[in-house]
Amino acid sequence: MARPTKAELAAAHGRGIQDVIAPGLRVLFCGINPGLHSGATGHHFAHPGNRFWPALYRSGFTPRRLTADEQEELLDYGLGITNLVNRTTARADELSTEELRAGGEDLVRKVLEYRPRWLAVVGITAYRAAFGRPKAAVGPQEEQVGATNVWLLPNPSGLNAHWTPATLAEEFARLRAASS
């Protein structure tokens, strides 16, 4: 996948991208919102520094490391991707609390329609704002969306230095074991 130019990145601001989703998934991963690389390419977690794809592989969700442009292959493994807010920004902190709350409502509707076994929200701070759960922590949550279990994962952005590639993979592996 070619890297977007500066002009392509600038033009991507405010765009949305398509979900990778189907009924009855094992896990539906939910990012915060698409970044500029994702908006420019149309692929989730497309920034070269994002650790989502390596974490999926290292945790055993996929048999090899997929790239963002292979995102549709996730469906073959019972996995999908959506976002809380489908508006491309340079940084997640450009989103308002109101946008996150509205995105949470949209996410609930989507989960009730598609009925994945697990919803894995990738980004604790955004989840807390979207669902009014200020003390939510990484791991399985007591709350469900319909019959769907909820798991919080750390943000795999390279900017989230608190989580190393190894510890991200460990947390993803905990979800994989629970969802098997």
Describe the structure.
It is a single chain. Helices cover 34% and strands 16% of the residues. By secondary structure, the protein is α/β, with parallel strands linked by helices. The protein has one domain (30-179): Uracil-DNA Glycosylase, subunit E. It has helices at 6-12, 36-41, 52-58, 97-114, 124-131, 165-179, and strands at 27-31, 79-83, 118-122, 139-145, 148-153. It has six helices and five strands.
SSE string, helices as H and strands as E: HEHHEHEHEEH
CATH domain fold name:
Uracil-DNA Glycosylase, subunit E
Number of domains: 1
> Cα distance, first to last residue?
31 Å
Number of helices: 6
Spatial ordering of strands, largest sheet: 2-1-3-5-4
Structural class: alpha/beta
Named at the architecture level, the CATH assignment is 3-Layer(aba) Sandwich
Poorly predicted spans: none
Q: CATH homologous superfamily? A: Uracil-DNA glycosylase-like domain
Strand % is 15-25%
What is the number of E strands? 5
The best one-word shape is globular
Rounded radius of gyration (Å):
15 Å
**Largest sheet descriptor:** 5 strands, mixed
Mean pLDDT: 93
DSSP helix fraction:
25-40%
Question: Could you name the CATH class?
Answer: Alpha Beta
